[in-house]
Amino acid sequence: MSLSIAFAALVASTVVWVLLVRRLTAKPWLTRGSTGALHEGGETLLPPQTIGLWTFLGVITSLFGLFIAAYHMRMVVGMQQGDWNHFPVPRLLWGNTFVLMLGSVAMEWARAAAERGELGRLRPRLLLGGLLTAAFLLGQLLAWRQVRGSEYFSPSNPAVAFFYLLTAVHGLHLLGGLAVWGRTIARLSAPRVKPLDISLTVGLCTVYWHYLLLVWLVLFGLMLST
Amino acid sequence: MAYVAIADRDHALHDPQSWVTKYIWSQDHKVIAIQYAITAILIGLVALGLSLVMRLQLGFPHTFSLIAPGDYLQAITMHGMIMVIYLLTALFLGGFGNYLIPLMCGARDMVFPYLNMLSYWVYLLAVLVLVAGFFIPGGPTGAGWTLYPPQAISNGTPGASWGIICMLVSLAIFIVAFTMGGLNYVTTVLQARCRGMTLMRMPLSVWGIFVATILGLLAFPALLVGAIMLLLDSVLGTSFFMPAVVSMGHAPTHNGGSPLLFQHLFWFFGHPEVYIVALPAFGIVSDLLSTHARRHIFGYRMMVWAILAIGCLSFVVWAHHMYVSGMNPYFGFFFATTTLIIAVPTALKVYNWVLTLWRGDIHLTVPMMFAIGFIFTFIHGGLTGLFLGNVTVDVPLSATYFVVAHFHMVMGVSPILVVFGAVYHWYPKMTGRMLNDTLGRIHFWITFLGVYSIYLPMHYLGILGVPRRYYAYTTADFPPSVQSLNAAITVAALIVATAQLVLLFNLVWSLFHGKPAGSNPWRATTLEWQTPDTPPKHGNWGARLPVVYRWAYDYSVPGAAEDFIPQNVPPSERAPAGHSHGGSV
Q: Of A58, A174, A8, whose CA–CA distance to B187 is shortest?
């Protein structure tokens, strides 16, 4: 854990360095007067919502990264002590994964429509993306039931406990996304909808969907490989 | 341009329509800041009361019978958690962060005001859930503020059934609140700075709060992960952390969990948490020293880099809190080394504060006295940190009062002195009135001398080997002088606590009877002192946003008519052209 976290910290520091070093070498006591630009070193054209979302994705990365580190550490201890009992993850998860991928594709289509200002096409695509995601969540609940009814189920088996924990936390993040999706659908139904505003919201939703798909693929791969 | 659309719109956002939307469901960053501050101070007073109960028990064990041994453990736990999370973190980031970031950056408000409002109310909910722990069967958890399993959820630990659940749920809610606020602080600093306010023209207060927020956003998830998993161990019988333990004669219900895993998660949050509190304090104290010494901050660029370096390094020192838990010697060596390395940028900051004072035109105002007091206490706390960062010294001292003395000096007293200094400094901007100077000086001297009277003897107790977390000692364990010292510490603690009433009285009295402050009573350069109205009105800047032409530390510039030039004064105007008549767009 310590090595992986140290590595992650190193990568993060490098990114921060590359992004900021140009701006942080200025000597402000020598440069008086207007800078001409909004921010010295280049203007930031990204909307605040985009910065906010990416910052939030950083928080999510930290959260799931730490869950994965905890999974790994507990597995190592459990395998030494013999209480980590592997269990075959339900095959249904493959289908769920496929559905979530379709959801992500639908959201991407929705984004393309939103960027072109095609509100007529946007609505069904957006609806499809959300419904596929809801179907994924339903599938996850069915997978829960399958594990619950299997011979492997035991709360004291950390492999099983982590299966429920990781899928639940991931699912909660998707539910949060669906709440924003629902608001976007409602805004689309408003009489005077502005294509530019909707385009930003749909774009951010799409990034979030792709990111959570990526997180799910990592989690699924982790559970399959251990 | 997205930036202008947010920062420079003529019509203010979320204009309050009624008293309720102005003062209760407010989306104004200044109101939210004050809501955060009042809530944090109130819950902090609860924690202060708990510490006094503990001190009375330790100082006069045969005179007072206020608490039983179990209550003592509960008081320790709640005192520690409240002070670190619900007071200091909330006050520095939710309070000062909310108030200062938009004003110092020249913005009208946070970029997500609704989320900002939600952040406060969710924080309040976290506090209420925490306080509910006092009223549930079994009382709050007595697991110690680190909440280590297995004892946190084992039979026999106070509050092991419901108290720990309240604590963990409250922490999870707090983290949600912090994330909402944190996203705002980071995005506002990155996106809503006014024209000319480059990163390297930002005051160090903003830098400290900004980097501390990033630390919090990355570190609090570790606490959330630990809290969720511990909650599941407690409620659903999972075995993430809980090993097979025969507890109070009961057969084990868990199997094979790893308590060390919890410690790693807790301290991966816990050590950055030190800097989540310290970095805003570092930034604020830099601004106080510079303003009241009428001198530019020494080594501004070095200070910024030191904040960034401390922020990065704070993620690779966590296991120095776990030396006594046992670890591979190579890991111990690694974490001892990183701990010593993080002392380098920290020491650089101390040198720069002292060098800022060197040959400055020092005004011994109350904020300045607190700032200088901070330098003293922080050096003392920092030096004992070097002791404890080394494995061989830490192991014998870890369970003693030396640790209590160390972290109270570095993590409790030092940031609180900065909080006091900041309150005296910015109260005139928040209310339009000055705090009473005489009362402020009385408050400072009693507090400053008092905290030394409390914590210096604790170092000595620690070196004698007096263990912490104990409810009572017998004279067979230690010489009678230990008890005398404990009694003296308790008396000092009572005096210091009473002195805080002077501040509270001053805050209320000055609100009505304080001397009118004017817009810039300290003749400071930073933007919050250049607002057209004091206290700043909704939207902060009137019709136009300020334009920044210089850094935040143009004090005593040779040739200038005054000894300060505000950030929004164009280069052609060498002297301040009225505090609210700087450049604007």
A: A58
Those residues with Cβ within 8 angstroms of residue B406's Cβ, 6 or more apart along the chain or in another chain: B381, B384, B385, B387, B388, B459
B518: closest CA of chain A, how far (Å): 27
**CA-based R_g, chain B, Å:** 24
Chain A residues with CB under 8 Å of B268 CB are 5, 66
* Cα torsion angle, B21, B24, B25, B27, sign: positive
Closest of B15, B144, B108, B150 to residue B468, by C-alpha:
B144
Longest dimension (CA), chain A: 73
Chain A residues with CB inside 8 Å of B198's CB?
A: 23, 26, 28, 35, 39-41
State the Cα–Cα distance between residues B305 and A26, nearest whole angstrom: 12
Convert the pLDDT of each residue in B78-115 to its tens digit: 999 999 999 999 999 999 999 999 999 999 999 999 99
In chain A, the residue whose alpha carbon lies closest to the alpha carbon of B231 is: A165
Instruction: Tell how far CA B571 is from the center of its chain.
Output: 37
A 66-95 → B contacts, CB under 8 A: 66-67, 70, 73-74, 77-78, 81-84
The tally of domains found in chain B comes to: 1
Query: What CATH number is given to the structural domain containing B221?
Result: 1.20.210.10
Q: Is A156 on the interface with B (CB under 8 A)?
A: yes
Which CA distances in Å does B192 have to A66, A224, B2?
31, 45, 10
pLDDT score recorded for residue B578: 46
Q: What is the pLDDT of residues B476-490, one digit of tens each?
A: 778 888 999 999 999
CB within 8 Å of A84: residues ≥ 6 apart: A74, A75, A77, A78, A157, A158, A159, B256
User: Would you call A15 an interface residue with chain B, using a CB distance cutoff of 8 Å?
Assistant: no
Residue B51: give the domain boundaries.
2-11+26-243+269-530
pTM of this structure: 0.93
DSSP 8-state secondary structure symbol assigned to residue B236: T
Residue B72 to residue B194: CA distance in whole angstroms: 51
What are the C-alpha distances in Å from B41 to residues B83, B89, B268? 10, 11, 27
Pick B191's closest partner by Cβ from A25, A48, A70.
Answer: A48
| Shortest distance, CA A24 to any CA of chain B (angstroms) | 6
In a domain, B540, yes or no: no
User: Does any domain span residue B41?
Assistant: yes
Indicate the burial class of A76 (C-beta count within 10 angstroms; 0-12, 13-18, 19 or more).
middle
Domains in chain A: boundaries:
107-226
Q: Evaluate whether residue B514 is within a structural domain.
A: yes
DSSP character for A41?
T
Cβ-contact B266, B222 below 8 angstroms: yes
Each residue of B150-199: pLDDT tens digit? 999 998 899 999 999 999 999 999 999 999 999 999 999 999 999 999 99
Q: Residue window 391-450, chain B: list those with CB within 8 Å of chain A.
A: none
Q: How far apart are CA B24 and CA B84, in angstroms?
A: 26
Beta-carbon-side half-sphere exposure of residue B243 (alpha carbons within 13 Å): 13
Radius of gyration of chain A measured on its C-alpha atoms: 22
| Tokens encoding B404 | 């209590």
Q: What is the pLDDT of residues B321-372, one digit of tens each?
A: 999 998 888 989 999 999 999 999 999 999 999 999 999 999 999 999 999 9
The answer as to whether B261 is a domain residue is no
Q: How far is B178 from chain A, CA to nearest CA, in Å?
A: 11
DSSP-assigned beta bridge partners for residue B468? none
Contact by Cβ (8 Å): A53, A35: no
